[in-house]
Every structure is written in structure tokens, then in C-alpha cells.
Amino acid sequence: MTQAVILQHVAHEGPGRIVPIFRDYGIPIEIRRLYAGDEVPTDVDELRVLVVMGAPLGVADVDNPRFPFLRDEVALLKRLITEDRPVMGICLGAQLLAHAAGARVYPNTVPGPTPDAPPVPAPEIGWGPIRLPFPGGTEPVLAGVPDGAMMFHWHFDTFDLPRLPTPPPPPAGAPPAPPPPTGHVLMASTAVCRNQAFRFKQRLFGFQFHFEMDQTGIEAMLAHGREDVLKVLGPEGESRLREETARYLPRYLRLGERIIRNFVEYLKLY
């Protein structure tokens, strides 16, 4: 029987509300806890959908012997990309999906204060609005999500959008060919990180922001990421995040559930 397989990299970044919503649709689920020694699946015929979660790791760790599962994930993602099989990548999962599709993954930056100054690192931690560019904001997976919706962010890196291979040039004397298709759609951006969410081909989705979390998941992120919060947001960062969580969480939960249900229904996974 085909099933949803969820790849979890660390104990404190679980699948959150993806599990109960998938179960609402009768989708069998298996969570592979890679940090605990579970293996990356190799039988793609048994995969109804692959969900790749986040972690305080990066594409730069793919060849790190401490995390051998990352290389196996990239190999699996390459197979699923070739076949355009359903994938939902979140945070690190989106970065791994982009990397497996041949796109560049690198630290997120913004321009320096002067034209000749080097770029400035621009991590995103905490609550911030997403922008839905046209036509990406009209994607069925984002139906019901308004421009400016507050989402939860926790990342230092970003990625280029993956592209289909460039077709061969037309024969000599042939009329000019139209621009080749990119294969991707940019679905969401933020003020400091343009490539926040994308669709590649028809069934491959990457989300840099988190939409799947619940209160417990956010608390776990804060508990394990205090150094990041202090570094990026300063000494008042944690208290500010907690205040903002109380303010934004109820609507965030509704919108996150909408995205997950849209994903299931758009791909007809039930």
C-alpha cells in the first residue's frame, strides 16, 4: 500500500499538523526519524508523497559524514524530480529539493549599506508576512491564503529556483524558438528573501517558511534555538517572539491547515 513518508531530521522539528490532516484524508503515514537511525526509503513505488522537514542543517552538510542520510535524501529527491512525484519540502526540505533539482543554495543576504559594501547576512527568525507574487499567488495550493499572511520563519539560507534543462538550439535556418519553459513558479516571497516558496514541474513544492507548526512545535524551536534568537534578534528576541506567537497563532493555524489541505486535494493524494 502506498503511503506518505515524512523525513524528520531532528527531534524538535516534527511534522506538526501534517500528520492529523493527512489522517483526516485516510492517507497512511510513516515518519522516518533519520536522526535516530531510520533509513531514507528506496522503494519509490510505495511512496504516495514524500514530506521533507526542516532542521538546523544545510545543503553544505550533504557530504558531512555526521549526517549520511542527507546524501541519501538528495538521491531520492532526484528520482522523484525525474518522475515528477509529489514532494513537500519545508525549510531545509525546500533547500534539499532545490539542490537536488540543480539549483544553487546559499546564505541569504541583503545589499550592504553602500553600493561598494559587501552583502549583509539576512537570516529570518520569527514572524513575518509573506507576499504572493502574480501568478504564483494564484496557485491552488495557496488558495485562501491572503497576501501579507504572517508565517513563521527560521532559516539562514536561501536558494535559486530550479529550472528545466535548456533544450538544444533550433537547427540552422529555423525560425527563432520561443523562450524555453523554466518549469518553476515562484509562489511566495518576503521583504528580505525573494524565493520563499515554489512549485517545480507539477507536483514538487518547496516552502522556506513554516506553515505546519503548532504551539508545541514553536516552543520546541525556541527551546533549541535560543542562541540563534539571541544572535539574530537580540536579548529581547525570545520574549518578543512569544508575544507575537500569542498574537498570530490562531490565524496561522487556520492558514497552515488550509495549505496542507490544498496540497492534498490539488494532488489528489486521498
The H/E string reads EHEEHEHEEEEEEEEEHHH
Counting structural domains, the number is: 1
Q: What do we call the CATH topology?
A: Rossmann fold
Question: Which residues sit in consecutive blocks of at least 5 with pLDDT less than 50?
Answer: none
| Helix proportion | 25-40%
Class inferred from helices and paired strands? alpha/beta
CATH superfamily: Class I glutamine amidotransferase (GATase) domain
CATH class: Alpha Beta
Q: How would you describe the shape?
A: globular
Which architecture does the CATH hierarchy give at level 2? 3-Layer(aba) Sandwich
Question: Which band does the percent of strand residues land in?
Answer: 15-25%
**Which radius of gyration do the C-alpha atoms yield?**
19 Å
Query: How many DSSP-defined strands?
Result: 13
Continuous helix count: 6
Main sheet: which strands, in order across?
A: 2-1-3-4-13-12-11
Give a short account of the largest sheet.
Answer: 7 strands, mixed
